[in-house]
Amino acid sequence: MADATPDMKDIVALAKRRGFVFPASEIYGGINGFWDFGPLGTALKNRVRDAWWRDMVTCPPIGPDGAPLSIVGLDSAIIQNPKVWEASGHVGGFSDPMRKCPGCGHFVRADHLQSILATDSEWVQELYEILMWKTGFNEVSHDHLRHWAATKGRKSAPNLAIVRNIDSVLSHIPEGRYPEDEWAPGHFKFFQLLATEQPNAPSVTGLQDPCPRCGAPLGGPVETSLMFASHTGVEQNDASKVYLRPETAQGIFINFKNVLDSTRVRVPFGIAQVGKAFRNEVTPRNFIFRGREFEQMEMEWFCHPDDAALWREFWLAERRRWWEALGIRPENLQMREHEKDELSHYAKEGLGTQDVEYRFPFTAPGFGELEGVAHRCAFDLTQHQEHSGTKMEYRDPVTNETYMPHVIEPAAGLTRGVLAVLCDAYTPDPSRPSGVYLNFAPHMAPVTAAVLPLTAKPAHVEPATKLYMALRPRFAAELDVKQNIGKRYARQDEIGTPYCFTVDNDTLSDQTVTVRHRNTMAQERVALDKVPAFLAEKVG
Ligand code: ATP
Question: Which of 179, 197, 208, 233 satisfies CB 3.0 to 4.6 Å to 217 for a cystine?
Answer without folding.
Answer: 208
